[in-house]
Write a structure and sequence with these properties.
Layout (H helix, E strand, L loop, with lengths): L6 H9 L8 E8 L5 E6 L7 E4 L3 E12 L2 E10 L5 H16 L40 E3 L4 E6 L2 E7 L5 E4 L2 E4 L8
Antiparallel strand pairs: 1-2, 1-5, 2-3, 4-5, 6-7, 7-8, 9-10
Length: about 190
């Protein structure tokens, strides 16, 4: 469970290096077929649903409802329960590393001599096992740079879609995406 501290408790925890940060994920949730599980999709794309057993969930904070085609799903902040197992440690390490690599606070590359990020064309991709080309980014991907500018992906290219504010959306090829990674949510 998330822990709050008094000022003195926090100072002591910092000095003894005992401040732990729980693994939280923000995404959409829906009922699962199994009675003891939920379905969860990272972000606001109505795809790539993962079944999460209820015993692995520490707590869930509903944030709002987000549209998904002709329906809506709750957008939630889900905190996984630390099981203390080596598998959980590996999972959390991988998720945190993935989050750092694709950080919403990372910005698209800058061109030499420019102080602001610029739109970029995808670099030539390596062929995949199926012989297709991998995209540089996927439609609906978003990230917020250090200057508070939100970048959205459309057709494999990053575009400036505005300031990072709660509720920011953008359109790509007739589809509306919620730029949830640009929303300043706690």
């Amino acid at each position: 469970m998330d822990r709050t501290f008094t000022g003195e408790e926090f100072r002591q925890a910092l000095s003894t290096d005992t401040v732990t940060v729980p693994l939280t994920l923000t995404g959409m949730a829906k009922a699962a077929d199994a009675a003891d599980a939920i379905e969860f999709a990272l972000g606001t794309a109505c795809k790539d649903w993962t079944t999460i057993p209820v015993p692995l969930i520490d707590h869930v904070e509903p944030l709002q409802h987000v549209p998904c085609d002709d329906h809506a799903h709750p957008l939630v902040r889900l905190t996984l329960k630390d099981t203390g197992t080596p598998e959980f440690t590996v999972l959390t390490s991988l998720l945190r590393a993935t989050r750092q690599q694709a950080s919403p606070c990372g910005s698209p590359p800058r061109q030499a001599g420019h102080s602001e990020p610029v739109s970029r064309r995808p670099a030539p991709a390596e062929p995949t096992a199926a012989g297709t080309r991998a995209a540089d980014c996927l439609d609906g991907d978003t990230k917020c740079d250090a200057n508070g500018v939100c970048w959205g992906c459309c057709a494999g290219d990053w575009f400036n879609i505005g300031r990072c504010v709660f509720g920011l959306t953008y359109g790509c090829n007739g589809v509306r995406y919620n730029a949830v990674s640009c929303w300043p949510i706690g």
